[in-house]
Amino acid sequence: MQIADAQREVRLVFLGGFVGTAVSSGLWLLSAASSTWGSPRRGIVLLVLGGALIFPLTQLLLRVMGRRASLSPDNPMGQLAMQVAFTIPFNLLVVGGATLYRLNWFFPACMIVVGTHYLPFVFLYGMWQFAVLGALLVAGGVTIGLSVPGSFSAGGWITTVILLVFAFVGRAAAIAEQKRQAV
After folding, report:
1. Using CA atoms, how far apart are residues 13 and 125, in angstroms rounded to an integer?
2. Alpha-carbon distances, residue 61 vs 18, 36, 67 (angstroms)
3. Are 160 and 32 in contact (CB under 8 A)?
4. pLDDT, mean over the chain
5. Which DSSP string do the residues of 125-180 spell out, in sequence order?
6. Residue 122 gets which letter from DSSP?
7. H runs (alpha helix) in 14-126
């Protein structure tokens, strides 16, 4: 399988990242809301533990939508996707250290980790839009961490919006590609 064909399959099966990014946005929304109207601890636990559910929920929603939820066995991008996914739990150690140092760095640190996690998606999906998403999250995390020291949940709310916008950006790109292929 050629790289371009493997990337095309990733884009089409996962709708340009729409479902996974929308699920992630929903998780960040729950975490930010729990942090704002509950406690920082509740928001942290929701985001950290809920993160493990993103891929299974993505697959479930794809199936509910009547779509295929996995790549073909000969697509090598499936292995790359799994490797990229495991960067987040390993980097949560860094988030933990930052949070222990300053509680309000939890969401900014998570933004940086998730933003860097999206950078390999540029190759995985063959979509430059993920570079913009990654850059926005990393820059947002650094900016909030350094400039908004008094707010615990600001990064959670901002990430919710950024992820939701990019879910629809990815969806639009995938739908446009499907239409081009149909012609």
Report:
1. 10
2. 11, 28, 9
3. yes
4. 94
5. II-THHHHHHHHHHHHHHHHHHH-TT-SSHHHHHHHHHHHHHHHHHHHHHHHHHHH
6. I
7. 18-37, 40-50, 54-64, 77-85, 87-101, 106-118, 121
Q: Burial level of 181, CB count in 10 A (0-12/13-18/19+)?
A: exposed
Sorted by sequence, the CB contacts under 8 Å of residue 63 that are 6+ apart come out as: 69
Paired tokens of 117:
């996690």
Nearest Cα to Cα of residue 137 among 100, 163, 111: 111
- Please give the residue range of the domain that contains residue 88: 3-69+76-182
Q: How far apart are CA 118 and CA 124, in angstroms?
A: 10
Q: Is 120 helix (H, G, I), strand (E, B) or coil?
A: coil
- C-alpha dihedral over 121, 126, 130, 135, to 10 degrees? 90
Amino acid (one-letter) located at 92: L
3-state secondary structure of 35: helix
pTM given for the model: 0.93
Model confidence over 63-118: pLDDT tens digits? 999 999 889 999 999 889 889 988 999 999 999 999 999 999 999 999 999 999 99
Q: How many domains is the chain partitioned into structurally?
A: 1
What gap in Å lies between CA 175 and CA 24, rounded to an integer?
20
Rounded CA-CA distance 114/88 in Å is: 7
